[in-house]
Request: fold
Amino acid sequence: MWNRRNFLKYAGLAAAALATKPTWAAAPNQAKDQPNVLIIMADDCTYRDLPLYGGRNARTPNIDKLAAQGIVFDRAYVASAMCQPCRSELYTGLYPMRNGCAWNHSASRADITGMPHHLGALGYRVGLTGKVHVAPAQTFPFETVDGFDPNCVRNPTRPHDTQHIRRFMTEDNDRPFCLVVALVEPHVPWVMGDATKYPPDKLELPPNIADTPRTREDFSRYLAEITYMDTQVGEVLDVLEKSGRAAETLVLFTSEQGCQFPGCKWTNWDTGLHTALIARWPGKIKPATRTAAMVQYADILPTLVEAAGGDPARHDYDGTSFLPVLSGDKSAHRRFVCGMHNNIPEGPAYPIRTITDGTYRYIRNLTPDEIYIEKHLMGWTGDGQLNNPYWATWVAEAWNNERTYNLVKRYMHRPPEQLYRTADDPYEMNDLANDPTRASVKARLSAELDQWMKSQGDPGAAQDTHEAIQASRKNKHLYGTPVRR
Reply:
């Protein structure tokens, strides 16, 4: 059983494995039009809590400034609302089932290659600082860059030191760099930043969050961590500016999956899978623009490869390049975006699959007779301590508060199918699955989801088992080889 102690052990082993520079040979010097790449990732930040996407509470002046300098994606997604699967998707261009990391705290298959290989072959130095949370090292041979805490559950987070990323950006001006700055805020524990700036009684809670005093206190601390994260974004961008290489650098900011409040992380609701995405590239991307083009993490690596002068078609990606969207030549990218959740080892098996066309979201709960349990959110740390005390207040209040009861029920007991018109109902509180006027929408999305699962070699409920995890770790499929759709 996975617990926090195992997580710390895993993080230490992963960091040690990546502590040396990769051994693959350096490619030729930087081509004239090859951009540097800077990817800044938040950790467990619900996109709708950012002012950029309508958030009513948090203050993020640095992220807002970056958005004014580039393009904002209004419909960007991860395929799995868990840290390791979504990062593996980002770094491989493959969905969780095909890259092998379809469960949190698992691993991708050793026979696939990732971002360091693909950009390294095009002449890039590819580094990562902060949270790693991908494995094995041979699939993700990032050059380790010091300066940012790799441990997302440390209390408090270690102070960061930007001199190391400054050195990485400037140590070889003849070759382009790709640097991932993987921050660990606002992941729990919510202990960083100044929570006094967010008085609990002044907050406007989202409609999918129960309104209890303890929830308000914790939401205040979560918002403080968002602002703390925003200051780090500002410092990283300042380092880039002072390096003299900002004009030739494609910057991406993303918020990863949703936060650790019910209905966000570990779910297939929009507040779990929807991510913030901003891109800035001076002279290439028109400032202060927004796009409704649907993209997801699997598309980012193919986009970077094409921007670097490579040919994404040479790789068997699930994603496709959205470079024409960045340049303004296209306004659309995907027709559908799919997602998945396997609950082991976060709790008992509870597999979920989903698809959206950007207007409607269809969710299929594959074991609806079971109750949903997520051990971290519901309070268990592995040491007998409460991890999220607010959840107990939801349960305690549910007996005489209808709204709180319905939120607890929504989270723990779900029907076989759910359908939401997300475009008008961003928190997906109004289930339309039984509305006869939406039957054709549900049937269309259900059929498309079936096709996606088939292309991934996804057997559905049978995948969310310990046996399937072990088969993946042995670098093979328990249920057959996925095929590229």
Remarks:
- Residues 339-473 form one domain.
- Residues 1-28 have pLDDT under 50 and may be disordered.
- The radius of gyration is 21 Å.
- The CA atoms of residues 60 and 230 lie 5 Å apart.
